[in-house]
Design a protein that fits this description.
This protein has 356 residues and is an alpha/beta fold. The chain contains ten helices and 14 strands. The protein has two domains: 107 residues, Aspartate Aminotransferase, domain 1 (Alpha-Beta Complex), CATH 3.90.1150; 239 residues, Type I PLP-dependent aspartate aminotransferase-like (Major domain) (Aspartate Aminotransferase, domain 2, 3-Layer(aba) Sandwich). The strands form four sheets. A seven-stranded mixed sheet has the order 2-10-9-8-5-3-4, sandwiched between helices. Helix 2 crosses helix 7, helix 3 packs parallel to helix 4 and helix 8 packs parallel to helix 10. The longest helix is centred in the last third of the chain and has 22 residues. The radius of gyration is 21 Å and the shape is globular.
Length: 356
């Protein structure tokens, strides 16, 4: 029996995707060869790549002026690849909302000046800043749309000053709601939360920016290389791209981003409402900044937390331990996480609290 998996990533995938993949592993589209064994230059995979890109374009209404890339090295490699290509000794503004923003800042500092226009550091990253002191002429403004560890999320994009474009690490909330890609220069996301397995990173980038990237970089580290070769300059992560394609099809067939947005809101509300009404638990993120993807909560009596996590696991509610840097509990309830799992968690929390 499968458990309800609250892991922050790699994370739960839609059941139908996993089931279809079992057959594809054995024999992809009656080719007599499993998907893992197909050449990235062969028709079976080339068709999957093209279809996946087209479906992403439809799902998120990605304008023609943007390229869709599948890269390797995780979102962490985008932390350096982005400034390496575009900063060129200039200034970029990085909103600091926690661990992942800080890692992005550290890498960007190697390629230019980083201004931090706003930070949530003073309140332990429990809310996302809304007021920003931008530098006079930044190349771009970078933000992390969902903070997987702190459990906070921007519910609207920050407004970049004129002349600057928005760059976003959307690793943990990509395609969890509607997104207006035209507001961005670049959006990137490691796949392992909302899109597929680890090992592939989705990058959506404005074509005209790609052209401006530095040319004195290793070939693999220039975006233009991957645009010119349609993400197949070298062997791409074929299985990961196939799974992303299936997840995107699943999203499209279940009603697209409008549907998933309300589904996700409903799930998060169920959990936050219970936590707010509880005498034992409390949510750590401030209202207005609460993540719909990673619900972080604690016990008022912290000595009860280990017992809660262990008892929940025995009931098939697994991976509820918060990130080691913050402790407490974290329920990651990404797109594929079913509402039944959230209901089961709330019922268990009530029981644990002695309410039923
Ligand atoms: C918001 C965010 N950005 C970046 C990363 C790092 O991603 P990767 O492991 O793909 O490098 C993570 C991983 O959890 C994340 O949650």
């Amino acid at each position: 029996m499968r458990s309800f998996n609250f892991s922050a990533g790699p994370a739960i995938l839609p059941e139908s995707v996993i089931k279809n993949a079992q057959q594809m592993l054995w024999d992809a589209k009656d080719s007599g060869i499993g998907i893992l064994e197909h050449s990235h230059r062969g028709k079976v995979f080339v068709d999957i790549l093209a279809e996946t890109k087209a479906n992403i374009r439809t799902l998120a209404s990605v304008p023609d002026e943007y390229e869709i890339l599948f890269l390797q090295g995780g979102a962490s490699s985008q932390f350096f690849m982005l400034p390496m290509n575009f900063l060129k000794g200039g200034t970029a503004d990085y909103i600091n909302t926690g661990t992942w923003s800080k890692k992005a800042i550290k890498e960007a500092q190697k390629f230019g000046t980083v201004n931090v226009p706003s930070t949530g550091e003073h309140n332990g990253f429990t809310e996302v800043p809304t007021k920003h002191k931008f530098s006079s002429n930044p190349v771009y403004v970078h933000f992390t749309s969902n903070n997987t560890i702190a459990g906070t999320e921007f519910h609207a994009e920050p407004e970049a000053p004129s002349g600057a474009w928005l760059a976003c690490d959307a690793s943990s909330d990509i395609f969890s709601r509607k997104i207006d890609i035209s507001k961005y220069g670049m959006v990137y996301a490691g796949a392992q939360k909302n899109l597929g397995p680890s090992g592939v990173t989705l990058v959506i980038i404005r074509k005209d920016l790609v052209e401006t990237g530095a040319e004195d970089l290793p070939t693999m580290l220039q975006y233009r290389t991957h645009v010119a070769k349609d993400s197949a300059f070298n062997t791409p992560p074929t299985f990961g791209i196939y799974i992303i394609g299936e997840v995107v099809k699943w999203l499209l067939s279940s009603g697209g981003l409008t549907h998933i947005e309300s589904y996700n809101k409903n799930k998060a509300d169920l959990l936050y409402n219970y936590v707010d009404s509880s005498d034992l638990f409390y949510g750590t993120a401030k209202e207005g900044s609460r993540s719909l993807m990673n619900v972080c909560f604690r016990c008022k009596d912290e000595t009860k937390e280990a017992e809660f996590i262990a008892a929940a696991a025995k009931e098939g509610l697994v991976n509820l331990k918060g990130h080691r840097s913050v402790g407490g509990m974290r329920a990651s309830i990404y797109n594929a996480f079913p509402v039944a799992g959230v209901e089961a968690l709330v019922a268990f929390m009530k029981k644990f609290e002695g309410r039923v």
